[in-house]
Design a protein that fits this description.
It is a single chain. This protein is 79% helix and 0% strand. The chain has 177 residues and is an all-alpha fold. The protein has two domains: 97 residues, Up-down Bundle (Substrate Binding Domain Of Dnak, Chain:A, Domain 2); 72 residues, Methane Monooxygenase Hydroxylase, Chain G, domain 1, CATH 1.20.58. The chain is elongated and about 85 Å long. The protein starts with a helix and ends with a helix. 11% of the residues are buried.
Length: 177
C-alpha cells in the first residue's frame, strides 16, 4: 500500500515534469545532453529523455508489482536521478539560450595574433637574456647548459614565427573575402 502511494506521487511529479518539458520537448541541440550512465538515450531532444524516464517508471512499477525489493530500490533511485537531471536541464535551458555565442572567427584571429606577438617578444627577450648569461659564464658545463637552453628557445621562437605567419595569412584571406 505504501509503495503504491509513493509510486503515485512519483508519477505525479513525472507528469509535472512532462508539462514543463513540453514547450522545449522537440528543440534539437548539437550533442547529447546527459551522462551515458544515467540515460541510455543519446538523443538531442528533451522529449527523448522524457520518454526514457517514462520507460524507467514503467519498469519501476513492474518491479514493485513483482516484489523485487533490490530492483525496486535501484529503479526508484534511477527514476529520481533522471527526473532531477531533466529538471536541472530545464532550469539552465534559459541560461544556455541566452549565453553569448562564440565570437566571430575574425576577432579570434586578432586575439591569437596579439597573443603570438606577445609570445614572440617574450621568447626574444629570453634568448637575449640567455645569450648575455652565456657571455659571462666561466665553466664549460654552464656554457653548454645555456647553449642548449638557447637552442630550445630558438626552436620555440621559430615555431611561434611560423604560427604568426599562418595567422597573418588567415587574417589577410578573411579581409579579402
Amino acid at each position: 500500500m505504501k509503495s503504491a502511494h509513493l509510486l503515485d506521487q512519483l508519477e505525479a511529479k513525472l507528469n509535472e515534469l512532462a508539462q514543463a518539458v513540453a514547450p522545449h520537448a522537440n528543440i534539437r541541440t548539437p550533442k547529447a545532453r546527459f551522462d551515458g550512465q544515467l540515460f541510455h538515450t543519446h538523443g538531442t531532444r528533451l522529449d527523448d529523455y522524457l520518454q526514457e524516464v517514462r520507460q524507467s517508471m514503467l519498469l519501476l512499477r513492474q518491479s514493485v508489482n513483482g516484489q523485487r525489493t533490490e530492483r525496486v530500490a535501484w529503479m526508484a533511485e534511477r527514476v529520481v536521478l533522471q527526473m532531477s537531471a531533466l529538471q536541472r536541464e530545464l532550469a539552465t535551458l534559459q541560461l544556455r539560450n541566452s549565453e553569448n555565442r562564440p565570437e566571430p572567427e575574425q576577432e579570434n584571429l586578432y586575439e591569437k595574433l596579439a597573443k603570438h606577438q606577445d609570445y614572440e617578444r617574450r621568447l626574444r627577450a629570453m634568448v637575449a637574456d640567455r645569450e648575455s648569461q652565456l657571455a659571462n659564464q666561466q665553466t664549460l658545463v654552464q656554457q653548454q647548459k645555456l647553449q642548449r637552453e638557447i637552442a630550445a628557445l630558438e626552436g620555440r621562437l621559430q615555431r611561434c614565427l611560423l604560427a604568426l605567419k599562418k595567422i597573418e595569412r588567415a587574417i589577410e584571406n578573411r579581409e579579402r573575402q
